[in-house]
Amino acid sequence: MKETNPVKIIIGVDTHKDVHAAVAINGIGARLGTLATPVSPKGYQDLETWARAFGTIHAFGIEGTGSYGAGLSRFLQAKGYTVVEVNRPNRQLRHQHGKSDPLDAESAARAVLGGQANAQPKSGAGSVEMIRHLKVARDTAVKSRTQAMVTLKTIIINAPAALRQALDRIIGKMTLIRHLAALRPGPITSVTASAKGALRAIARRWLMLDAEIKAHDADLDALTASCAPAMLEAHGISTGTAAEMLILVGDNPERIRSEAAFAKLCGACPIPASSGKTNRHRLNRGGNRQANAALYRVVIVRMRNHQPTLDYVKKRKADGKGKMEIIRCLKRFVAREIFGYLCGAQRSLSSLPKSA
Fold first, then answer.
1. Average pLDDT over residues 227-256
2. What whole-number distance in Å separates Cα of residue 186 and Cα of residue 201?
3. For residues 103 and 106, what is the distance between their CA atoms, to the nearest angstrom?
4. Are 32 and 9 in contact (CB under 8 A)?
5. Considering the chain, what is the average pLDDT of its residues?
6. 266-304 per-residue burial string, b: 16 or more CB within 10 A, e: under 16
């Protein structure tokens, strides 16, 4: 039977944009008090003072440590408290027991008390958080640049015949964009003038976004090189993949307990799907899909020109494995390798295992 300590105080917090709701319970699950505090440095301090009045704090269980609870989580970690990341309550339980902010906060505290929640949140106060900010800005700029190019092509296709014919003679994407950015539509008194005005505006927007993306790429190159130089030297791993993996791990990689846990975070581990005499596994469609896609890109590159990988593919094909099965095995091996670079002692997996 699990030993309980009545003196142990656990604080559960349900986070929102403007107000956080907190509930304190003791080691035997008795509810001690509730608090609603504003989202601000003073509100965080008031919550800490309120919690300390109940006794020695064992842990804070906080929902949404990566979003609305990020500020509170960082504040408490800086004070030396144990912060546990708590998943959102099960919808079925909410339907049975009702929904309110204090109930959600109490559920978070009980998840910590019962051991269901034990994940350490990302610290979000170092170089990896800087990489995440730049990666978000870069990704949105890439999407906007793509949208601008699609819009340019659409307007050109629907432009007056004389203008479209003149633009069709221009060879090269950059030559066309610079030509469009230098157009002089004059007064908007005709369809041709309005088309030129729109094309010039969108072309200049594309050039601005392109310059922004290049600036972000330069900053990301420098940051990832300082955080994970060994990983960038591995075959098939570029700045984009390194940034994605660093964001997944965070500034405190010690929170990842094992390479199996890291593989599960990437969605690169098989899920048992056995029943009775049937023993099988199914594809894992969970985990961080951006990290999973990064693993896929590394595997595809290595399957083209990485000799150890080519030897492994040849062997598994001889064993009767299909291409997708081989890719899934290779993703697991790459996840293990990256875990070594980021979370454990650096090691190389240049020689792949002989069996899956």
1. 91
2. 13
3. 5
4. yes
5. 88
6. bbbbeeeeeeeeeeeeeebeebbeebbebbbbbbebbbe
Q: Please choose, from the candidates 109, 87, 91, 110, the residue with its C-alpha nearest in 3D space to the C-alpha of residue 99.
A: 91
DSSP states of 32-96: EEEEEEESSHHHHHHHHHHHHTTS-EEEEEEE-TTTTTHHHHHHHHHTT--EEEEPPPPHHHHHH
* Confidence at residue 21, expressed as pLDDT on a 0 to 100 scale: 93
Q: Label residue 345 by pLDDT band (50, 70, 90).
A: very low
For 157, the token pair is 């296709």
For residue 104, what are its two tokens?
């959600």
pTM: 0.80
The single-letter DSSP state of residue 252 is -
H-run or E-run covering 21: strand 19-25
For tokens 């906080």, name the residue: 62
Q: What is the mean pLDDT of residues 281-304?
A: 90
The answer to whether 330 and 314 are in contact (CB under 8 A) is no
How far, CA to CA in Å, does 112 sit from each of 14, 26, 37, 269? Answer: 13, 11, 21, 26
Average pLDDT on 8-37 reads 92
Q: Note the pLDDT of residue 354.
A: 46
Q: Which amino acid is at 236?
A: G
What pLDDT, on a 0 to 100 scale, did the predictor assign at position 87? 83
Strand partners of residue 23: 12, 34
- Contact indicator for 332, 293 with CB cutoff of 8 Å: no
Alpha-carbon torsion, ordered 311, 317, 319, 320, to 10 deg = 170
